[in-house]
Each structure stands twice: as structure tokens, then as C-alpha cells.
Design brief:
4-stranded antiparallel sheet, 13 helices, 4 strands
């Protein structure tokens, strides 16, 4: 057992001393998966998925990022590396892919258990090279996430650019149809208040028609009363006619008195009779003037009623035509508004995706860059020695037990006969005192058999 332990410890110590020293350089990156998009201001839904952290780890350990590290460090340009590649692969494949695979084999990605920090560790024989590779993986991972986010935005920008062009053509076509219809119908303005104005004018004409009809009816009544000269307010209110009637009554009375006094052939009677005729003629002329004036006024009112009625009919026809035009114009306006909304929405999305495609913003930040390690990470001589002691102890105990099992014990005379092939003439037995100590000694003390020759 001691020999096995000693050999195991010496082998482990020798192996630890002859092994090449390796250095671990670790860079820390922070994943702001609960942040907001700096362009849209919205929470990024894809980053709230449970598999977001695992996805980011896969991106860090991807061939894409490894190739970026190979290019940024110019590893494939080294003649020594090219020669090693030729010796290792006999010139099969590409040196960049070979180097990327080697880097990924020595890369370890460890996410934190309760935080958004990811540790990127690279192991190498050169401490400066290990730190450079770890930092390069962190930086190239950050740039890769920007590219992975920008590439879909570029594709979306191209798509929205094409859609914007098509929607612009549709908008121009809708505008052309609307303009052609306006020119055909003579529509100058698309103001929606025009119908309200025309309806207000129609209501005014209707009110004016009612007033004109009332005035015409009243004027007709006055005209008929003036012609009959009975109960005519125009005749009664005419001062000339009233004076003529008074003078005519006075002259008639004078004529009657003269006829009684002098007779019909008397010059005074003749003079009074001529004066009566003159007054009657003037009265008739005054009545005719009043009648004609009232009739002319009634005709004017009737003509006005006809004109208002005609204007009302024209206004009604205009409103009907305007409503019909508006109904026909509605679909064209809706097509134009729909095309305008679609064009505006596509233009807005095109502008947004174009900005996203040109953005260099990333939600990945390098928290702690890797520094050149001063102590090797492997081999660990003390740890290997302690492990070898434990392993040598277990191995020695196991070998001892195995040897004990392989060595056959002698427990009876039959065992002697089977092992040596000679007869047994007798045996001496020992019976110690009873007790626990006696039983223990009996178990530990081998049985002694006497061989009698």
C-alpha cells in the first residue's frame, strides 16, 4: 500500500512538473436584456425570452465570432501558423477555419447564476496572447450582435423602400383620378362646408318665397279692392282722391242748387256742370293712377315670387347635384386618404428601419476587459499532489485487499491436504477465555496447525 501511494504521488508530481504552463484570461460582458431600444424607445420583446442568455452564449461560442477574432488578430497571416496548419491537416481545409476551431476548443463561456454578466475565459501558453484573445472575443461578440440586429433592419429597409415606391405610385394615381373628376365636374374646393352653405341658402330662399307669396296675395287683394274702389285702403289713404271727392261733392251740390235756381241752360249751370265733369275726370284719373300703381306693385310682387320660386328650384337642383357629386367623390377621397395613410406608414417604417440599419448601438457592454495573467492556471502542483495522495491511498488499499483475496488462507485440515497434497496426522486446538476481547483475538490470530512428519 505504501509503495502504491508513493508511486502515484511521484507520477502525479512528475506529470505536473513536465506539463506546459497555461494561463487563463477572463473578460466580462454585460447583457442589458431588460433595456429599451434606443431607436424606438420600446422594450425589446425578443430579449425577454427565457432562452435569451443561452442564445447569447451560443453566439459568443459561434464560428462567426471566432473567425472575426482570427481576422482581427491577423492569426492566419503568420507563417508559423500556416506551417503548423500544413503539418496538422496536410493542407486540407482553410487555415481560418482551423484556427477558429482551435480557439473555440480553448474558450470557456460561463454565465453568472443570478445576473446578466457572462465570463469569457481563454486558456493559452502565452499570457499576453490569452488576454488579447479573450478581449477580442468580447469585442467581436459585441460587434456581431450589432450586425445580427442590423442585417434584418437592412433587409426590412430594402423591402419598405420598394413598398414606399409602389405606394407612392398608387397615391399619385389616386390623386390624378380625383383631379380629373374635379376638372370634369368643375369642383374648385373640397370644403365640406360648401353643402352647409348651400343648404343655408336654400332655407333662406324658402323663407323668402313664403314672404313673397304672402306679399303677392296681399297685393292681389289690394289690386282688386283698388279696381272696385270699395274698401280700398290705397284709395282711402290717398289725399288727392279724398280732396277730389270732397270738391266733387261740393260742386255737385252747387250744380244741383244752380239747376233749381236757374235751369239747365243757364250759364252758371253750364259752368258748374263743366266743373263737375272736370272733377270727375280728375277723380277717375286719380283712381286709375292708384289702381295702376297698386296693380304694378302687385305684378312686381308676383314677379318676385316667380323669381324666388325659380331660384329655389335651381338651388334645390344645385344641392341635389352637389350631393350626387359628393357621393361620387367620396370613394375617390377614401381611396386618396387610404393611399396617403399607407404611404405615410410605409415612409415612417422605411425611415425607422433605415436608421436601425445604420445604427451601431448595442445592448452588450464590456464590463471588465481581460488583463494579462501573472500566475499560471495549470498545472496545479499542490492540487494534483493532494489528489494523487487520495488516489494513491485508495489504489493501495484496493491492491492490498485484492492481494489478500488472492492469497488462499488455511482454515482446516482439508485446506492443508488440498494445498500440499500430504496427509494430516493431527491438530492442536486452542480455546481462549470467552469474551469480546477473546473473540477479537481469535479473529485476528491465525490458526496454527502442526505438521507431523
Amino acid at each position: 500500500m505504501l509503495g502504491t501511494l508513493l508511486v502515484t504521488v511521484l507520477l502525479a508530481l512528475g506529470w505536473s512538473l513536465v506539463q506546459q504552463k497555461t494561463y487563463d484570461a477572463t473578460a466580462s460582458v454585460l447583457l442589458n436584456y431588460k433595456g429599451v431600444d434606443p431607436l424606438t424607445g420600446l422594450t425589446m420583446p425578443g430579449q425577454l425570452m427565457p432562452g435569451y442568455m443561452a442564445t447569447q452564449m451560443d453566439i459568443i461560442g459561434s464560428k462567426n465570432v471566432a473567425l472575426r477574432v482570427v481576422d482581427v488578430l491577423s492569426l492566419a497571416a503568420s507563417p508559423v501558423v500556416v506551417q503548423q496548419f500544413q503539418e496538422a491537416t496536410d493542407g486540407k481545409g482553410a487555415v481560418r477555419d482551423w484556427l477558429a476551431d482551435l480557439l473555440l476548443q480553448k474558450l470557456e463561456i460561463m454565465p453568472s447564476r443570478e445576473s446578466s454578466v457572462v465570463q469569457i475565459t481563454f486558456s493559452g501558453a502565452d499570457p499576453a496572447f490569452a488576454a488579447a484573445v479573450a478581449n477580442a472575443f468580447a469585442v467581436q461578440y459585441q460587434r456581431a450582435t450589432v450586425q445580427l440586429k442590423a442585417e434584418p433592419a437592412k433587409n426590412a429597409s430594402v423591402y419598405f423602400n420598394e413598398q414606399t415606391r409602389q405606394l407612392r405610385d398608387q397615391l399619385e394615381a389616386a390623386q390624378a383620378r380625383l383631379s380629373a373628376y374635379q376638372q370634369e365636374k368643375g369642383i374648385v374646393s373640397l370644403d365640406n362646408n360648401r353643402v352647409d352653405v348651400e343648404l343655408s341658402r336654400l332655407n333662406d330662399l324658402s323663407a323668402q318665397l313664403v314672404v313673397a307669396q304672402t306679399a303677392a296675395i296681399e297685393a292681389g287683394s289690394r289690386e282688386r279692392a283698388a279696381r272696385s274702389a270699395v274698401n280700398s285702403p290705397d284709395v282711402a289713404n290717398n289725399a288727392l282722391i279724398q280732396n277730389l271727392r270732397v270738391n266733387l261733392a261740393a260742386v255737385d251740390a252747387k250744380l244741383a242748387e244752380t239747376g233749381i235756381r236757374f235751369g239747365r241752360n243757364h250759364p252758371q249751370y253750364q259752368s258748374a256742370s263743366a266743373e263737375v265733369e272736370k272733377l270727375r275726370a280728375e277723380l277717375g284719373s286719380a283712381l286709375g293712377t292708384v289702381t295702376r300703381s297698386v296693380g304694378a306693385n302687385a305684378e312686381v310682387l308676383r314677379q318676385r315670387e316667380v323669381e324666388i320660386r325659380s331660384a329655389l328650384a335651381e338651388q334645390n337642383t344645385r344641392i341635389l347635384a352637389l350631393n350626387r357629386t359628393r357621393d361620387e367623390l367620396g370613394p375617390l377621397l377614401k381611396d386618396l386618404e387610404g393611399a396617403q395613410r399607407a404611404f405615410d406608414s410605409a415612409s415612417q417604417r422605411h425611415a425607422q428601419t433605415r436608421i436601425e440599419a445604420q445604427s451601431e448601438q448595442s445592448d452588450i457592454s464590456v464590463l471588465n476587459p481581460a488583463v494579462v495573467p501573472t500566475e499560471p492556471a495549470a498545472p496545479r502542483v499542490l492540487l494534483n499532489t493532494l489528489v494523487s495522495i487520495l488516489l494513491g491511498t485508495i489504489l493501495g488499499v484496493g491492491i492490498g485487499l485484492l492481494l489478500e483475496l488472492l492469497t488462499r488462507p488455511v482454515r482446516s485440515t482439508a485446506d492443508i491436504h488440498d494445498m500440499l497434497g500430504i496427509p494430516v496426522l493431527g491438530s492442536v486446538s486452542w480455546h481462549p477465555a470467552r469474551g469480546a476481547s477473546s473473540r477479537l483475538r481469535r479473529l485476528l490470530t491465525p490458526r496454527r496447525l502442526l505438521r507431523l512428519n
